[in-house]
Design a protein that fits this description.
The complex is a heterodimer of chains A (508) and B (326). Chain A has 508 residues and is of the alpha/beta class. Chain A has 17 helices and 25 strands. Helix content of chain A is 32%, strand content 25%. Helices cover 73% and strands 1% of the residues of chain B. In chain B, strands 1-2 form a two-stranded antiparallel ribbon. The chains are: A alpha/beta (508), B mainly alpha (326). Chain A: It is a peripheral membrane protein.
Chain lengths: 508, 326
């Protein structure tokens, strides 16, 4: 089956010396990528390293400036994503590309319908086979896709790839919005694809996943391939070193900070969707981590206290402020009471994407620049520029659109907004989601520095290593119920997982 | 790469369009087109749409839309006529009654705007539907008050607002044109240099972000629709001045001209974009087209086709600009 040609070697897919520029920006300089049949190949690199561009070139969405691609020994030159699909390259995008109102079957067959005199032919067999291959016999083909979880929707996309006889399936951050259980199911599916001889190119920021599910890796940095090999021959720090070009011994820096008096006391808070009673206290200088599975109600706690979500009852006591009934809280009051929140959804909620960096940065504290409702624009820009410099936001001007920044820099602007408002109690919801390792390290350092300055911080995260790395104390959530809050050192990863999955503290 | 350069270009895009149509018609039309008298005519003809477009600009930047402005304008003219007739003693009208009538029209539109804003923010119904309803309601109320007839009024100073040759002569343009200019400056300052204006942009660009940043979104939405309706009220005064009667069937379909002016001027129906300058230029482009086509003796349908093409073309140019930016 394999045809050997001098150029293609033994690879199912081979990309050689790919280059692509957008105007003056060289997104890809010198990229090589070789994928064997039936392997799971990890493509890693920081944001902006060129992974997405490379995949767009591979799927046919972008035309490369130079370089050659070979698929199955033959030259592969897709003119459009449709041609790429036809040639056997299937792309599963981060944002799913399904028609939400159509059924599973209709989505799987979309664009592939066989017709006779304009009438649809029965292709149930094909759909059934694909779903069976994925071990998803229980997925009803006539369910509308919008009634499925994100994990199941993703499987529908993969089933679609199977129906088109894909040879290579590209997955871009496939687990970023999945629950742990759905992620495990996905890994099972990936193994099945592998058994079928289908190659998977797996793009992810989660390196444990990469080590768990992938066979080989290729690291991109600044649009170049900097390393490739077997994952068994490399360690996590080794991989990170390739990704950022330097070593991150101190990904989680330890900046000394002291815990002092209580600044926030939450009593008997009852929120959606679980209606469980929650109480906790937060001290000045404390970094409190909240762990748990996706959907355990972690974000809901801090969002409710901040007034973004419905609260049924509860009292919130903030130091030096009168006691507040949580039912009546709104974000405006919360900000005035020295609370602030970093949203987990940067694009949907955190930022106004068609406004400038400065506007986004100062929006929660415009009063600083206003007199009788009139704004001092010069002063505002100077204020924004100052914070951009302090957080090393890479941009030419505070007036540049926020959409021109990379994910990491956008996140820094979100955090800068909190610092600019200068609340003493900060709720950070997934502060490092979707940003590269380098920016993550900067944000961890910043969180610790802030605690050192006497801020009280709650960090909600799905990523346990970072909570263990930067927090002083930790609580775990299970279906709306919060565990006892204990110093991080008193928790083991096993204890945390045990509570997160069962709601019971491990008897020791 | 040069941001200020790009800003200038995006600000002046509609302006270049205006110059283009003006130059085009100066070549095609008889010299009368560029006469002072005709330019006065064009400016005066764009007053009503222009003033209403200022209000619409704020609504569209905030991510909303108001389909009821045409009906509100009709309601305004009827309210003015009714109030004037209440004060009609057969003698000279004087200054106060017409002023009161004008304020009543602004208040009537303001009430419409307040109801729209409250409904949108309180019950989270999309603006399109709420204002579609208000379009019918305001039109119905206008007909009810006017008993389905035009309401004639005694002569008064409101009727002089849209004159081409005003008294005193040094005014040069009719008071309506000057009022438009003052409102333009006001709205520009409001949108660019005030907290209110910034919040309008923030709500339109991303309502969730606005909420996260502590902006009382519901309160502001009500304020935006009410405040914008004041501009509709002022536009209705100008409409009355043109007609000299209260007409419940006036300004039928004018909301579409007003929305078109905003869109031609760079306003985005998905919110977060738009400017008073763009909108008044949009209104002027349409006025120049209508005037030029009339002068060329082109039938009405030609104007309609051209304006349709310009609306879609303006948005297309805008999209292309965004694509280059991205």
């Amino acid at each position: 089956m394999q045809q050997d040609t001098a150029a293609a070697g033994n690879w199912l897919l081979s990309l050689e010396n790919m280059a692509k520029s957008f105007g003056p920006v060289k997104a890809l300089r010198q990229v090589n990528l070789q994928v064997k049949a039936g392997e799971v190949h990890a493509l890693v690199g920081e944001n902006g390293a060129g992974k997405s561009t490379l995949m767009k070139v591979l799927s046919g969405a972008h035309k490369p400036d130079s370089g050659n691609m070979y698929l199955n020994g033959r030259e592969y030159k897709p003119g459009s994503p449709a041609q790429g699909r036809l040639a056997g390259i299937a792309m599963i995008y981060q944002e799913l590309m399904l028609a939400p109102h159509l059924t599973v079957e209709e989505n799987i067959l979309l664009g592939l319908e066989k017709t006779k005199l304009g009438f649809l032919q029965n292709q149930k067999q094909q759909v059934h086979e694909a779903l069976a291959w994925l071990g998803q016999e229980d997925l009803q083909p006539n369910t509308p896709v919008n009634q499925l979880s994100i994990g199941k929707q993703q499987l529908v996309e993969i089933a679609r790839a199977l129906v088109t006889d894909a040879r290579v399936v590209i997955m871009d951050e496939p687990t970023s919005s999945l629950t742990a259980a759905d992620a495990q199911a996905l890994f099972g599916v990936i193994r099945r694809l592998k058994d079928k001889g289908i190659s998977v190119i797996y793009i992810s920021h989660f390196l444990e996943e990469v080590f768990g599910v992938c066979d080989r890796y290729t690291v991109l940095r600044d649009g170049e391939t900097v390393a490739t090999g077997n994952l068994t021959d490399i360690s996590t720090p080794g991989l990170i070193r390739h990704m950022i070009g330097r070593s991150v011994d101190e990904l989680y820096p330890a900046i000394p900070h002291e815990l002092s008096e209580t600044v926030l006391q939450v009593d008997n808070l009852v929120t959606q969707p679980y209606h469980k009673t929650i109480s906790f206290a937060l001290r000045r200088g404390e970094i409190l981590g909240i762990s748990g599975l996706v959907g355990a109600g972690r974000s809901e706690i801090i969002r409710s206290i901040f007034g973004l979500e419905k609260v049924h009852q509860g009292q919130v006591k903030i130091k030096n402020k009168p006691e507040l009934q949580a039912i009546y809280l709104n974000p405006n009051q919360a900000l005035n009471a020295d609370l602030d929140l970093l949203s987990e959804n940067r694009k949907e909620e955190g930022l106004a994407l068609n406004l400038s960096i400065a506007t986004n940065l100062t929006l929660s504290a415009l009063g600083k620049y206003a007199k009788n409702g009139l704004l001092n624009l010069k002063k505002e820009q100077a204020g924004a520029a100052d914070w951009m410099q302090q957080l090393q936001v890479k941009s030419q001007s505070p007036l540049a659109p926020i959409s021109s920044l990379s994910g990491g820099n956008q996140q820094k602007v979100c955090i800068a907004r909190l610092l600019h408002h200068d609340s003493d109690i900060l709720f950070l919801d997934e502060p490092t989601r979707g940003i590269d390792v380098g920016s993550k390290a900067e944000i961890y350092r910043l969180i610790q520095t802030l605690a050192g300055q006497g801020k009280a911080i709650v960090v909600v995260s799905s990523y346990l290593p970072e909570l263990l790395g930067i927090c002083d104390t930790l609580g775990v959530m299970y279906r709306g119920q919060l565990s006892n809050i204990k110093p991080v050192k008193a928790w083991t990863e096993d204890d945390i997982m045990h509570f997160a999955t069962s709601g019971m503290e491990t008897a020791s | 790469m040069n941001i200020t350069g790009k800003k200038v270009l995006s600000q002046f895009g509609p302006f270049l369009g205006l110059i283009f149509v003006f130059v085009l018609f100066s070549i095609l039309c008889p010299p009368a087109f560029t006469s002072v008298y005709n330019i006065k005519t064009i400016l005066t003809q764009s007053v009503i749409v222009g003033i209403a477009a200022f209000g619409m600009t704020m609504i569209i930047i905030s991510g909303g839309i108001d389909l009821s402005v045409g009906s509100q304008i009709a309601l305004g003219t009827v309210v003015i006529a009714t109030v004037l007739n209440m004060g009609n003693t057969g003698a000279e009208m004087g200054f106060m009654w017409p002023l009161l009538a004008a304020l009543a029209a602004i208040a009537a539109c303001g009430v419409c705007g307040f109801i729209i804003g409250r409904f949108i923010s309180r019950f989270t119904i999309v603006p399109f539907i709420v204002t579609l309803g208000m379009m019918q309601i305001a039109r119905g109320v206008a007909k009810w008050i006017a008993k389905e007839q035009t309401v004639t009024t005694p002569p008064n100073w409101l009727q002089d607002l849209m004159l081409l040759d005003p008294q005193p002569e040094w005014l040069f343009f009719g008071p309506g044109v000057w009022i438009t200019l003052i409102l333009f400056v006001l709205v520009t300052i409001l949108l660019r240099y005030t907290v209110f204006g910034r919040y309008v942009f923030a709500i339109g660009s991303n309502e969730q972000t606005a909420r996260l940043c502590g902006i009382p979104v519901k309160y502001y939405k009500t304020a935006i629709y009410t405040f914008s309706a004041f501009f509709t009220g002022i536009a209705s005064i100008m409409q009355y001045s043109n007609l000299t009667v209260g007409d419940p069937t006036a300004a039928n379909g004018m909301e579409l001209d007003i929305i078109a002016a905003v869109v031609i001027g760079g306003g985005s129906l998905s919110g977060g974009e738009g400017s008073a300058l763009g909108s008044i230029i949009g209104a002027l482009i349409m006025a120049v087209l209508r005037n030029g086509c009339n002068m060329l003796g082109l039938p009405n349908y030609v104007q309609e086709i051209i304006i349709g093409v310009i609306i879609v073309g303006a948005v297309l140019v805008d999209r292309l600009k965004h694509r280059i930016k991205a």
